[in-house]
């Protein structure tokens, strides 16, 4: 009996230590963002201040980068979700000759190492005039999430019983009508989660705007933070404050949405 | 008669038109870049003049595969993959998920959330945080702790330790994903199996290796595929923390590709590196599909 208890104590202890270790990198970020000092190392200041946040939030360049980040992430999210609905519906409800190869193709794109596509896309965008445009970034970010969105949406459509669809067709609704009046409303919660996940992924993406944009006024917050970090004399407390403004909302949204994502993803694997 | 049937037939198939916009979009912005990546990898295209280039056959691949720095980059990538993805994320992920599965519900929720916060943190932020946390001069959080216990500061981002440091940072970032996959895998194992094994007198270690691991086979393969692909395509965290340096100590293939294209201006070489990464990724994915079919 004692042996079993001891074993449990060890499990709890190990997991607690692991969680504490996971929090270590955040210590600097939070201490520094409220510090009047300016230090890449770790020091506990003798007083705390909100000045770094105030300075960041009154700086036009940073406000603009937040706005740019929002436009680019939301625009790309809109594109991925819109273009995913149709194929997801057809994959879920119809059977046709090319179904398996097409679905495998989409699956293959899901795990694609997209970073390696940035060099050719960079050349392609210069050729067609999309380089250094917001619309170019939106179009490319949007296509990257499209394959996984098709999968997640197909799986959520799969869960709608055939009988409901049949009832709507008996009622005289055509296929398209049943898509808009039955499938989309019934999967609205998953759609909401999908939109959040897309947004958070796009918001966190650094390398797409970093490589496809060059004008300072177009840079989203992810790239702005990086160039702030790489600048000559960095005001680290403001960098930390800006990073918190950038990070905390995204993390909260993600934690809220992830519960549903795992369900959808593991459904996808069963496919 | 014939006519109406034909119209009906068309109406039945009209739904497939829904594919057209999506596949056009995927075709232009996803498949076409793959195609030109292959095309440009056989040219000497340069960042200084992207309009004038000539085809040079396999020269780019040849010079890559005979260059010490690229071979070194492949080695670095393999070490990064094995230590970060396979040992650090997959194996540790199974262990943590298993330990979590025997703990109390709210404790489990708190620990899982903390691990997930790391996974949800945008990589630019993660890179900056880790850079500061491991900072040598001035002392970052870890060195302040070490000094407090009387241990000398360690230069974590030096030539010999930088690779280990980015591996630790990447495990920190990625562990949450594996824990999620394995937690849902473990919760799918019927409790009666675990109970039966307990009655049989199996100790926790045997139980873990003989019963839990084999039942998790599908989760393991899935997790292994996804984190291998994530890690192969990892860029931002390492780029922010070390930029591939010092010297070439953390020069994983994606960073090599970036530098070839944008520091050395050789977009031809950069595309060739990209094609090599894509071929590796597709081979890994196909292996995965085959191993799932085997079941």
SSE layout and pairing:
The complex is a heterodimer of chains A (271) and B (295).
Chain A: H1 2-33, H2 51-57, H3 60-93, H4 99-110, H5 118-128, H6 134-158, H7 162-170, H8 175-186, H9 188-204, H10 207-212, H11 221-230, H12 236-270
Chain B: H1 2-13, H2 19-40, H3 59-65, H4 68-101, H5 105-120, H6 123-133, H7 141-148, H8 162-187, H9 191-199, H10 204-215, H11 217-232, H12 236-241, H13 253-262, H14 267-293
Give your account of this protein's structure.
The complex is a heterodimer of chains A (271) and B (295). With 271 residues, chain A is mainly α. Chain A has a domain of 180 residues: Orthogonal Bundle (MetI-like fold). Chain A is built from 12 helices and no strands. Chain A is globular, with a radius of gyration of 23 Å. The C terminus of chain A is likely disordered. Chain B has one domain: Orthogonal Bundle (MetI-like fold), CATH 1.10.3720. In chain B, 44% of the residues are buried. The N and C termini of chain B lie far apart (50 Å). In chain B, helix 4 packs antiparallel against helix 11. Chain B has 295 residues and is an all-alpha fold. Helix content of chain B is 73%, strand content 0%. Chain B has 14 helices and no strands. The interface between A and B is large, with 83 and 89 residues.
């Amino acid at each position: 009996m004692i042996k079993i208890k001891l074993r449990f104590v060890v499990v709890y202890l190990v997991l607690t230590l692991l969680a504490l270790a996971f929090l270590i990198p955040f210590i600097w970020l939070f201490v520094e963002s409220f510090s009047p000092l300016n230090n890449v190392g770790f020091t506990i200041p003798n007083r705390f201040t909100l000045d770094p946040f105030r300075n960041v939030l009154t700086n036009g360049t940073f406000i603009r980068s937040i706005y740019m980040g929002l436009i680019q992430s939301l625009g790309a999210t809109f594109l991925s979700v819109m273009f995913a609905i149709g194929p997801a519906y057809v994959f879920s409800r119809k059977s046709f000759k090319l179904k398996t190869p097409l679905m495998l193709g989409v699956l293959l794109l899901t795990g694609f190492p997209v970073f390696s596509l940035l060099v050719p896309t960079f050349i392609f965008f210069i050729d067609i005039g999309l380089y250094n445009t917001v619309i170019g970034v939106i179009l490319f970010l949007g296509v990257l999430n499209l394959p996984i969105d098709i999968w997640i949406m197909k799986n959520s459509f799969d869960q709608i019983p055939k009988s409901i669809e049949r009832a709507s067709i008996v009622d005289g609704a055509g296929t398209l009508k049943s898509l808009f009046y039955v499938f989309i409303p019934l999967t609205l919660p998953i759609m909401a989660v999908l939109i959040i996940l897309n947004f958070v992924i796009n918001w966190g993406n650094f390398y797409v705007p970093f490589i496809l944009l060059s004008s300072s006024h177009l840079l989203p917050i992810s790239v702005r933070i990086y160039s702030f970090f790489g600048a000559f004399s960095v005001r680290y407390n403001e960098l930390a404050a800006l990073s918190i403004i950038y990070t905390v909302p995204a993390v909260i949204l993600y934690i809220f949405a992830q519960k549903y994502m795992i369900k959808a993803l593991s459904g996808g694997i069963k496919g | 008669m014939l006519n109406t049937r034909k119209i009906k037939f068309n109406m039945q198939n009209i739904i497939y038109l829904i594919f057209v916009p999506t596949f056009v979009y995927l075709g232009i912005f996803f498949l076409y870049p793959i195609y030109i990546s292959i095309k440009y990898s056989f040219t000497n295209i340069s960042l200084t003049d992207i309009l004038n280039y000539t085809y040079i056959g396999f020269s780019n691949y040849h010079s890559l595969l005979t260059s010490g720095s690229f071979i070194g980059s492949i080695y670095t990538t393999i070490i990064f993959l094995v230590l970060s993805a396979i040992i650090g994320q997959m194996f540790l992920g199974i262990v943590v998920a298993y330990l979590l599965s025997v703990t109390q519900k709210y404790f489990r929720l708190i620990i899982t959330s903390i691990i997930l916060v790391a996974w949800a943190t945008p990589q630019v932020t993660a890179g900056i945080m880790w850079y500061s946390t491991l900072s040598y001069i001035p002392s970052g959080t870890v060195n302040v702790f070490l000094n407090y216990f009387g241990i000398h500061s360690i230069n974590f981002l030096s030539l010999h330790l930088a690779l280990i440091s980015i591996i630790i940072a990447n495990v920190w970032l990625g562990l949450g994903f594996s824990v999620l996959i394995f937690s849902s895998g473990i919760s799918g194992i019927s409790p009666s199996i675990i109970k039966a094994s307990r009655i049989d007198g199996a100790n926790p270690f045997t139980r873990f290796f003989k019963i839990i691991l084999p039942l998790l086979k599908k989760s393991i393969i899935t997790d292994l595929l996804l984190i291998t692909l994530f890690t192969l395509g990892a860029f931002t965290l390492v780029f922010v923390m070390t930029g591939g340096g010092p010297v070439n100590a953390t020069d994983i293939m994606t960073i090599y590709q970036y530098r070839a294209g944008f520091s050395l201006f050789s977009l031809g070489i950069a595309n060739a590196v990209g094609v090599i990464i894509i071929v590796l990724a597709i081979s890994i994915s196909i292996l995965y599909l085959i191993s799932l079919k085997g079941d």
